[in-house]
Design goal:
It is elongated and about 85 Å long. With about 220 residues, the protein is mainly alpha-helical. The longest helix is centred in the first third of the chain and has 18 residues. Helix 5 packs across helix 9, helix 8 crosses helix 9 and helix 8 crosses helix 10. The protein has a two-stranded antiparallel ribbon. The protein is built from eleven helices and two strands; from the N terminus they run αααααβααβαααα. Helix content is about 60%, strand content about 5%.
């Protein structure tokens, strides 16, 4: 957006200059040139370059006020008021959910088929993961106090995968224990459970489609 905005501002400046051509011809837009050649400080281009980059990153609401703060800090050797998209700064220090963190969580569950929601929530918080995402997973899966771990894991993976196929791929990588022996592998029964559950939650994959896909995969195993 910054580049687009800069382009638009540039176009406006060009239009303004072009509109002032008439003033120049009438003598109302005059530039007095000195007989001596102007000397440009060697550090000026780099200073202006860094200032421009900082302004684009920060996107200050009041450019003049921010510019004053910027050059005052630069002069005094203080930290510069540079912020990247300040309107999106989070008020909390939540971590971003990743397959690696889900792998850690899976290890903490320790092979159990079910886990109490409060215990799982504490594990989730230990990894500094966002509680609102935990609540969303619980609501989407209609999960109760006694959580089936594979269902929770599948829905957590779905927040990372755009499609069911990508979600299953992430889940397989997390559940697999033989990464060094080729592609991740899990029992067909586990894959069948995950795929059936995700298709049911998705609601757009018919039962016949699920059965055909599972039959095909079982034949290929």
């Amino acid at each position: 957006m910054a580049e687009k905005g800069s382009h638009e501002i540039g176009q406006k400046c060009l239009s303004s200059v072009e509109s002032n051509e008439g003033f120049k011809k009438k003598g109302l837009f005059k530039i007095k040139m000195s007989d001596k050649q102007m000397s440009i400080p060697p550090e000026l281009p780099e200073v202006l370059k860094q200032f421009t980059k900082a302004a684009i990153k920060t996107q200050p609401s009041d450019l003049l006020q921010w510019s004053s703060q910027y050059f005052t800090a630069l002069k005094n050797g203080e930290p510069l008021p540079i912020k990247e998209r300040p309107e999106r700064i989070s008020l909390s220090n939540w971590a971003v959910l990743t397959p690696e963190l889900l792998k850690v969580l899976h290890t903490k569950v320790g092979g159990r088929l079910t886990i109490v929601s409060e215990e799982l929530l504490q594990m989730w918080k230990t990894l500094s993961l966002p509680v609102d995402l935990f609540d969303s997973i619980m609501n989407v899966g209609r999960l109760a106090d006694e959580i089936e771990w594979l269902k929770f894991l599948a829905l957590a993976c779905s927040s990372l995968g755009v499609t069911i196929a990508k979600t299953l791929k992430i889940a397989c990588e997390i559940l697999s224990s033989d990464h060094e022996c080729g592609p991740p592998r899990i029992p067909f029964s586990t894959f069948q459970f995950l795929y059936t559950f995700l298709a049911d939650v998705d609601g757009e994959v018919s039962g016949s489609q699920v059965n055909r896909m599972l039959s095909y995969i079982q034949q290929e195993v």
